[in-house]
Amino acid sequence: MSENIIFTAFEEDEAKRIDKFLTEKHSDITRSAFHKLIEEGNVLVGEKRVNKNYKLRVGEKVSLFLPEPEETNIEPENIPLNILYEDEDVIVINKPKGMVVHPAPGHYSGTLVNALMYHCKDSLSGINGQIRPGIVHRIDKDTSGVLVAAKNDVAHIFLSEQLSSHSMNRVYNAIVYNAFNEEEGSVDANIDRAKNDRKKMAVTKEGGRRAVTHYKVLERLGRFTFLSFKLETGRTHQIRVHMSHIGHPLLGDEVYGPKNKPFDTEGQVLHAKTLGFIHPRTKEYMEFDTPLPEYFEKILKILRNKGSSKKCY
Question: Which residues are the active-site residues?
Answer without folding.
Answer: 140
